[in-house]
Amino acid sequence: MSINTVGSTGRKPGKAHIVVLGNEKGGSGKSTTAMHVIASLMVQGYSVGSIDVDARQGSLSRYLENRRVYGEKHELRLLQPRHHMVPPSNHDSVADREKEETERFLQSLEDLSNLNDFVVVDCPGSDSHLSRLAHSHADTLITPLNDSFVDLDVLARVDWETNNIVRLSHYSELVWESKKMRALRDRGSIDWVVMRNRMSHLDAHNKRKVHDALVQLEKRVGFRAAAGLGERVIYRELFLQGLTLLDFKSTGVEREMTMSHVAARQELRHLIDSLQLPGIVADAAE
User: Fold this and answer.
1) Using CA atoms, how far apart are residues 104 and 116, in angstroms rounded to an integer?
2) Are 2 and 41 in contact (CB under 8 A)?
3) Which residues form the domain of 277?
């Protein structure tokens, strides 16, 4: 069984806070982060809608389907967002396909914004017209980034010997264009948060160099850096069950928690706090 929560935030219809998960590289933890942000919002009583823009991979949609199946199988009342997936168009013309998919996304965004306090959008790990459109509608943009110079390349080309920024990346330029589009559309702004996911407890020298490069980029590109989720087996296990770290008590597996699980929940508390979403407190991840 599943239920939806309805927040009491004094929200005006159509004024949901839009959270977009974006990164042009796959495997950075976008869908896992999206699901945990959704869960953190729902446990505080906010109504949440979600949109999966990545129809090909559909990771967030699969996560939520796994959650539905697990809840029904074990007769659990797991909180679920109102979820939409933007299906691909079958038109032969590229222009017609993009037009139809754009209309589908905007209709989903409007419908969910009218019904919810927050809407969380999961984008594909590639550049697409829908991903660009979703970015331009973000109030908060979250870019999960694996903690390495290989993945830092999504933001900028960095000389690893000198730690100097050689040039900005295609994705950074995409976000800059999205910010301009947002400002022109409604004079709104995008709060861009770059998450350092899968931070190793070892290799301190490399971690320092990545940190130093991000400090330079923060000022030049215009984002806030935040610690994300660590490299833990628990996240892969939770995906298969459709669960989050916040479901342990409600599913009766609290007694099975290890020190790794406790540390993961601490990471989640810090992440939710660093996002600075309106009305949200980090203690919800407790």
Assistant:
1) 18
2) no
3) 2-285
Token pair for 258? 């290890």
User: pLDDT class for 29, splitting at 50, 70, 90?
Assistant: confident
- Give the pLDDT confidence of 195-247 residue by residue, as tens digits: 887 655 545 666 677 777 787 788 778 899 888 887 667 888 899 999 998 88
Question: What is the number of alpha carbons within 13 Å of residue 10 lying toward its C-beta?
Answer: 2
Q: Which two tokens stand for residue 44?
A: 């505080």
pTM of the model: 0.87
SS3 annotation, 141-160: EEEEEECCHHHHCCCEEECC
Report the alpha-carbon distance of residue 64 to residue 175 in Å, rounded.
28
CATH number, domain with residue 230: 3.40.50.300
C-alpha 96/C-alpha 206 separation (Å) is 47
Buried b (16+ CB within 10 A) or exposed e, 19-58: bbbbbbbeebbbbbbbbbbbbbbbbbebbbbbbbbbbebb
Number of domains the chain is built from:
1
Taking residues 78-94, report their average pLDDT.
Answer: 93
Contacts 24+ apart (CB under 8 A), 7-11: 7/44, 7/45, 7/46, 7/47, 7/117, 8/45, 9/46, 9/117, 9/279, 11/117
Per-residue DSSP letters for 186-248? Answer: HS---EEEEEEES--SS-HHHHHHHHHHHHHHIIIII-EEEE-----HHHHHHHHHT--GGGH
And the tokens for 99? 């037009």
